[in-house]
Amino acid sequence: MAGALAGLTVDVSLYPLDTIKTRLQKTHEASSFVRPRLSAIAAFRSIYAGLPSVLLGSAPSAASFFVVYDGLKRTLQPENGNPPPFLLSMPPSVVHMTAASIGEIAACAVRVPTEVVKQRAQAGLFNGSSLAAFKDILSLSKQPAGYSIMLQELYKGGGITIIREIPFTMVQFSLWEYMKNYYSMYQSFNYGREKGLVTASESAVFGSLAGAVAAGFTTPLDVLKTRIMLSRREAGDKGQRLSTMAMMRNISKQEGMRVWFSGFVPRVMWISVGGAVFLGTYQWAWNALGRWNKEDQYNGRKEGI
Asked: Cβ neighbours of residue 51 under 8 Å, at least 6 residues apart?
């Protein structure tokens, strides 16, 4: 619940920055952002193109991540301080990176199809319509072996998304957890604060810093993911598809090395602010649920007296 709320809050509030990032990263043939002379309503629709896809996928994707992440973290590093024997020598940072990586793989199962539809709408394909982009993919099912082709198109870029998300998440969550734990110990030792307690605002600051570092580090992988997802398979298309490595070579040869950092500034801004909102909201919801559980347990004990 906490993860779903956090994910939805970030994706909706910072969506315009994500749209700008996608348009900076697409190929140069159609690189205009918003055409001049657009009305205010048309400009609003343009900058929020693809949002319906995000609304459908954001909450379950974020919830999937945190269910797996928190479950694994609690298994590998229990609160009672007695991990399984084979994990006694595993440092906390490795626990966090392992749990985050597996959590991201679970989240990508939900996120990738919505991301494909979203980015095609953001890039201006199908006049920015998520529904039209989705129908275009569904139309591939009419071909021989169509359902297999349709699923391949829905999960296009899934591999590179996982390759991007694993290092991103390892960097972001290991930094976030380290800063939280260090600051919590500092507050507990010097000011007597409850051990392990971190406020939502503190978590937001740490999440922003960790997100900015991870976002900058993984921008080249994000550019490659965007290019792969925007390359459509049309009905009747039986041509040889470029491999990921071939696409990387073509992009570097035709556009130079600078292209790998296209959208760097909006990506770092988006994920820095998003990290603050996402992990701050998550911490607030986590703390609130923890308080309610403690109150329920306390009331239950009182009734049993």
From this structure: 12, 15, 118, 130
Kindly report, residue by residue over 68-79, the tens digit of the pLDDT.
988 888 887 766
Interatomic CA distance for residues 72 and 86, integer angstroms: 15
Mean local confidence (pLDDT), 232-245: 62
Please give the distance of CA 134 from its chain centroid, rounded to a whole number. 20
Burial-class residue 229 by CB neighbours within 10 Å (0-12, 13-18, 19+).
Answer: buried
Packing angle of the helix pair 200-217, 264-304 (nearest 10 deg) = 150
Confidence of residue 206 (pLDDT cuts 50, 70, 90): very high
pLDDT in tens, 128-152: 888 998 998 888 888 777 788 888 8
The DSSP string of 246-288 is: HHHHHHHHHH-GGGGGTTHHHHHHHHHHHHHHHHHHHHHHHHH
Average of per-residue pLDDT across 26-39: 54
C-alpha torsion 31→32→34→38, nearest 10: -140
Query: 75 near 131, Cβ under 8 Å?
Result: no
State the alpha helices, DSSP H only, in the chain: 2-13, 15-25, 40-47, 51-76, 92-122, 130-138, 146-154, 158-191, 200-217, 219-230, 244-255, 264-304
> What is the spatial distance between Cα 40 and Cα 202, in angstroms, rounded to a whole number?
37
Q: Mapping DSSP to helix (H, G, I), strand (E, B) and coil, where does residue 235 land?
A: coil
The answer to whether 72 and 102 are in contact (CB under 8 A) is yes
Q: Please compute the mean of the pLDDT values over residues 183-200 and round it to a whole number.
A: 88
Q: Residue 237: what residue type?
A: D
Closest CA to 170 of 120, 217, 118: 217
Q: How confident is the model at residue 30 (pLDDT cuts 50, 70, 90)?
A: very low
